[in-house]
Amino acid sequence: MRIPRPGRWTARSAALVAALLLGLVAAPGPAAAQDRVIVYPRRSEAVLDPRDAYPVGLLQIALERAGIRARVTPSDVVIEQPRAFRLMQAGLGIDLVFAAGGPGHEGAGRLIPVPLTRGLLGHRLMLIDRDRQGVLDAVRTIEDLRRFTFAQGTGWPDIAVLEAAGLIVSTARYDLLFRLVATGRADLFPRGVHEAFAEIALRLPENPSLAVEQRMVLVYDRYDVFFFVRRSEEALAAAIEAGLRRAYDDGAFMAHFRGHPTMRDALAQARLAERRRIVISNPLLTDAVDAIPQRFWESP
Prior knowledge:
The chain has 13 helices and twelve strands.
């Protein structure tokens, strides 16, 4: 394999050299490297968690563009985010986490600075008990929302965003949150645009009163999901970042963003332009995320 001459260093070159350091591509010689297994934390008891299809597909695109041979697979058991970061940093069975940016996560892992949904994670639709729609039709401002209880998963960074806006939050394990809303123990479960409709389709049989609220979208500034790896895996981080940037350059990233059913169908169903926007500040916005170039963000 040729190593580029000085002055010809590119994202592809960086990815290939990083992959060589990782032992994920074949170096010159008769023996080829074995495929690496990259394990991410299973987030739900559901066999097919709809939240995983889009980021896992994007990771596979990045790995391919970086020249890395790897198999991406979830952990055998459900692992909540705080524990997933601890296991990843300790090198105990978790290699990569996809999670929202913020000081806590960025302190616990190496953030790869390419937002995976171009900021759509920060555009929140509400899962509700459909009988509550009439009450919610009157909501116009953040002050109106302070009368309601918001459901959140254990350890999720959204908790800090919502509480900083003066909102009431109730937490539980992810798989229980839908029942909290369906039974009236919480009023609203904020979900990213790309999450809400896929989750409703999966959870409606066991929670038939669930619905996506029809009138509003709650917006957090520059809030999105990123890939994180352990800090000692600098070569893996560099390879994935280079692969994502190369996917932007050759159009594969935007083709996945616009064409994946999770995104395409959600944007069509969400009708964001017709919804009332309630914007709240993002107290988790770090310098690292704020410095990400505008080309990686989208305002739907």
